[in-house]
């Protein structure tokens, strides 16, 4: 009987080890350590201790020492857990520091002029509170509260109506008056901090919406065959509309409006950015004069042009207007042999060179990688340019590029892509920014008389349309608009730089680290030491 009990006793440590492994594997798979996993760990730990029991001979001193060591080990683990629970410290080990606020957000919050309140409707307090606390830590003017809709009956407008859960309402107090953002920020509310991190950009946009002194307005010139920000139906609707991009601008509190320039004969005074997107016909003289008058008073112009499809350039007036500001736009077509060899047609080049010296394209070389375009025309800086203006080439083709005159273009791919001599091939600029230098711009601020404009040119009007729009195009277009509005702090949120910040872990990372530091490592040391000591005593 004693022999059978001894054999069963030897199996208990094996069963305990299996239970411990099961608990660890279950926690890693689910990404959380729940009550079932904790129960399995405790039961496995108790069963594993059976390896130190002696059936045939055992002294009271032996079991007393075993109990003391076990109690001390569990006590130390509990103490570490309590210290960690009451003194939380976070390190963001996620890729691109996704669980920390970006530097742009911290800069924006650091310069808030008005108190901001974030009111969250959710049945859960954590990890939402920890995430919103990042905003409060950046500026003490930011406060937040979490309201449980099932405890606050005022959230129900009608009996039986379900409350809108998992939303954030942003408001600002300006001159004693509370201004609320009409569009509430929604989140999944799954208790996963990694899913909450995507709220940074919409929360920042909502903060800017309620604190901005005036609305930012973008006017799009309508007619002349231009692309439109309105949704269209019918053939080629997605190629003629950039409504998706327009809707994203609206989400960022930028008001997008159509401008019938041929009827109004002037650009409104509240226009922050004027957009001319891919006209197939030339502007009338009165329209060109209206655009010139707008630029002369320091306006901002985003112009997107394609190579002309006619033997005669149908946009001579518009090109002449740009030339007066030192921007020469070619009506001809760009060919890129490097793109052709890599599987793309040379008539639709893939841009891989982004200027690191301008806010629109800085840091995009590694983030975007490449930007596919449709048929592209190019631009150059004129030999004589207006004083005070600076020119930045934003996008360039490869060194295997050349210009094809559409007057001689026969739509024969083999013939048209036959490369010229290498001396005629070079990099070509397909996007350029024009604007005053910072020193001169600051000197002009507050002075009367004409101010220097800002112009951004793209040699392709299709890349922002619904048919072509993707993350690289969206990022580039939004950065161009924000630079033209002279509000570079509103750029898309970049990955934050690594600094001495509290660090957050994704749920599975947190579980893995917790299991290793709280369970695996202490248990390994404890059981390993006891096993080694026991085996040495038995050999004696």
Detail the topology: elements first, then pairings.
Blueprint: H1 2-30, H2 35-48, H3 60-86, H4 103-110, E1 116-121, H5 128-138, E2 142-147, E3 167-174, E4 177-180, E5 185-186, H6 193-196, H7 200-211, E6 216-221, H8 237-240, H9 243-251, E7 254-259, H10 261-264, E8 273-277, H11 285-296, E9 300-304, H12 316-323, E10 327-329, E11 333-336, H13 337-341, E12 350-351, E13 353-354, H14 364-368, E14 371-372, E15 379-381, E16 389-396, E17 401-404, H15 413-416, E18 429-436, H16 438-444, E19 454-458, H17 471-484, H18 507-539
Parallel strand pairs: 1-2, 6-7, 6-8, 8-9, 9-19
Antiparallel strand pairs: 1-3, 3-4, 3-5, 10-15, 11-17, 12-14, 13-16, 16-18, 18-19
Helix pairs in contact: 1-2, 1-18
Give an overview of the whole structure:
It is a single chain. By secondary structure, this protein is an alpha/beta fold. The chain is 39% helix and 16% strand. The chain has 18 helices and 19 strands. The chain has helices at residues 2-30, 35-48, 60-86, 103-110, 128-138, 193-196, 200-211, 237-240, 243-251, 261-264, 285-296, 316-323, 337-341, 364-368, 413-416, 438-444, 471-484, 507-539; strands spanning 116-121, 142-147, 167-174, 177-180, 185-186, 216-221, 254-259, 273-277, 300-304, 327-329, 333-336, 350-351, 353-354, 371-372, 379-381, 389-396, 401-404, 429-436, 454-458. The strands form five sheets. It has an eight-stranded mixed beta sheet with strand order 7-6-8-9-19-18-16-13. Strands 1, 2, 3, 4 and 5 form a five-stranded mixed beta sheet that branches. α1 runs antiparallel to α18 (507-539).
């Amino acid at each position: 009987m004693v022999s059978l009990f001894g054999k069963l006793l030897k199996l208990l440590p094996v069963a305990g080890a299996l239970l411990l492994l099961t608990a660890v594997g279950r926690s890693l798979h689910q990404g959380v350590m729940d009550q079932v996993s904790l129960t399995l760990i405790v039961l496995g730990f108790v069963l594993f201790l059976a390896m130190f029991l002696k059936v045939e001979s055992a002294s009271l001193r032996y079991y007393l020492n075993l109990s003391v060591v076990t109690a001390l080990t569990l006590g130390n683990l509990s103490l570490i857990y309590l210290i960690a629970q009451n003194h939380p410290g976070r390190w963001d080990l996620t890729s691109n520091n996704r669980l920390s606020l970006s530097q742009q957000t911290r800069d924006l919050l650091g310069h808030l002029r008005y108190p901001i309140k974030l009111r969250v409707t959710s049945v859960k307090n954590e990890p939402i509170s920890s995430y919103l606390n990042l905003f409060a830590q950046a500026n003490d003017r930011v406060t937040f509260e979490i309201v449980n809709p099932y405890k606050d009956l005022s959230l129900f407008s009608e009996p039986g109506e379900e409350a809108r859960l998992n939303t954030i309402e942003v408001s600002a107090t300006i001159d004693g008056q509370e201004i609320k953002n009409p569009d509430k920020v929604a989140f999944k509310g799954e208790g996963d901090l990694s899913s909450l991190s995507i709220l940074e950009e919409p929360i920042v946009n909502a903060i800017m919406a309620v604190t901005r002194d005036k609305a930012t307005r973008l006017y799009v010139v309508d007619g002349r065959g231009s692309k439109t920000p309105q949704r269209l139906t019918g053939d080629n609707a997605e190629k003629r509309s950039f409504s998706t991009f327009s809707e994203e601008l609206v989400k960022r509190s930028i008001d997008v409006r159509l401008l019938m320039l041929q009827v109004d004969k002037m650009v409104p005074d509240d226009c922050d950015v004027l957009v001319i997107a891919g006209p197939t016909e030339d502007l009338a003289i009165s329209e060109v004069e209206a655009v010139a008058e707008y630029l002369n008073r320091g306006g901002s112009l985003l112009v997107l042009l394609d190579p002309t499809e006619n033997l005669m350039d149908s946009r001579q007036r518009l090109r002449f207007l740009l030339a007066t500001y030192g921007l020469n736009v070619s009506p001809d077509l760009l060919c890129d042999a490097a793109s052709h060899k890599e599987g793309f047609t040379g008539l639709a080049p893939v841009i891989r060179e982004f200027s690191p010296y301008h806010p629109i394209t800085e840091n995009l070389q590694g983030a975007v990688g490449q930007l596919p375009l449709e048929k592209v025309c190019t631009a150059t800086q004129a030999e004589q340019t207006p004083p005070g203006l600076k020119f930045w080439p934003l996008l360039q083709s490869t060194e295997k590029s050349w210009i094809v005159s559409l007057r001689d273009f026969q739509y024969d791919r083999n013939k048209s892509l036959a490369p010229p001599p290498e001396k005629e091939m070079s990099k070509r600029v397909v996007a350029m920014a024009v604007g005053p230098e910072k020193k001169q711009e600051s000197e002009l601020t507050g002075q009367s008389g004409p101010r220097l404009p800002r112009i951004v040119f793209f040699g392709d009007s299709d890349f922002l349309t619904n048919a072509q729009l993707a993350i690289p195009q969206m990022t580039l277009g939004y950065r161009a608009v924000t630079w033209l509005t002279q509000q570079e702090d509103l750029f898309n949120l970049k990955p934050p730089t690594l600094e001495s910040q509290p660090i957050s872990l994704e749920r599975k990372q947190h579980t893995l680290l917790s299991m290793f530091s709280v369970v695996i490592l202490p248990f390994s040391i404890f059981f390993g030491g006891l096993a080694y000591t026991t085996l040495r005593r038995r050999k004696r």
